[in-house]
Fold this sequence. Notes:
Elements lengths: L4 E8 L7 E10 L5 E5 L6 H10 L3 E3 L4 E5 L1 E7 L14 H14 L4 H17 L2 E7 L4 H14 L2 E5 L1 E2 L15 H16 L9 E7 L7 H14 L2 E6 L3 H11 L3 H7 L7 E5 L5 H10 L2 E4 L1 H7 L6 H7 L2 E4 L11 H17 L7 H4 L9 H8 L1 H6 L15 E5 L17 H10 L5 E6 L2 E5 L1
The structure holds guanine.
Guanine binds next to α2 and α10.
Amino acid sequence: MRGKVLLASGFHAPVAGEVDVLEDALIAVDGEGVILSVTRRGEADYDAVKARAVAEGRLERLPEGSYLLPGFVDCHVHAPQYPQLGGALDVSLEVWLQKYTFPLEARYADLAFAKRAYGLLVEDLIANGTTTTLYFATVHQDATRALVDTCLEKGQRALIGKVVMDNVESCPDYYRDASVDAALEGTRALIDYVRMHPDNAAGLVKPVVTPRFIPSCTDATLEGLGAIAGECGCHVQTHCSESDWEHGYVLSRHGMTDTESLDRFALLGRHTMLAHSNLLTASDMEKIRVREAAVAHCPLSNAYFAGAVFPLRAALEKGLHVGLGTDISGGPSASMLENCRAAVTVSRMLETGVDPAVDAATRANGQPARIDFRHAFHVATAGGAKALDLPVGQFSPGYRFDAIVIDTTAKAGSMRLWDEFDSGDGVLQKIVFTASKANIATVWVDGKTVSSR
Ligand SMILES: Nc1nc2[nH]cnc2c(=O)[nH]1
């Protein structure tokens, strides 16, 4: 789409809870993939913009029944866990890590295996419409570099961290950073690799300081990572107050919550993404807001490993930055659409309560907690992009053209629109609730086609 003008109908949601419907809009993209202008039908220069694009042979049109959406921004993925997606869901978080996840992640010492798994993952995520992903890799330097190379090669926007875990008390001998120095040097080396990569001049991939979570890191390492994040101006990602076990562990080791502890290690800032964050206190939420850090809400994963639902509506009302995450493989789906649906569903359950043995009057939690498809779509796109401070996720001048086409007529797809019933943002509601990978016809990152059927 570079250098073209796209005539398309579609949707974006720059503001939480609101959908902006684009009808036959003209979106002009420059030679680098940046949106130059968005001209709506009815605007004074609409006909002139269209006529010029036609005369210059630069007009492209979406077919009837196809809709333009911003690409999805997945704010929490464990790349090495893709081979266990849909499995290993039978135990608690602390057991799952030791029994399934650390042994699987340790396999990435084998570079050939890493390349194969990462190639499949990145291709599948792109085909699912995910144009930006925030990735945890593994402790391994070579395999993490292979993930960087794969994203650059396949054209996915990505933020990638070498996982840091050096605490002998909680990390197995076979899968651990050897020392504080090794953990910190490995992090610096990955930052340099990403920033100096010859194919990354445009900054499509960014490095991320990635302490796995407080239980897996020593204090010396957390302190060192905070210093690196400050020096290098990098993004930071970690898990925060995910489950009762994890939240309780940090309270007993540090005498404070994850949020407070990350803050004192200088790991809580504008470019920090806290995965899960289900058990935040009111003052944790306030601290995250003041620091302008962000939460990656992972609704499917939380059903299996958190035993709690993140209060998304309250967080958005408080003004927190929030994105949506699949949490592959804690969440058993690579689809952001499925996670949008889960976000809506769990919010309804949080509002009403779920135990039929409890009287209806007391079953509800007493606070309005429900969100709808508009909020879900926002956190999956513009909200996640804003949380990561990236110029994507919406169709506005100056933003990168990262976008997908939903073909609502695709034979192998899972949705049907009805002329008699579906119009306006009702079409987006149907897309959010019923579209699937087979409906995703084209995916662009930076105006380049990275997937098409
Ligand atoms: N969901 C999830 N939580 C974690 N906490 C520490 N590591 C992990 C992980 O891999 N997945």
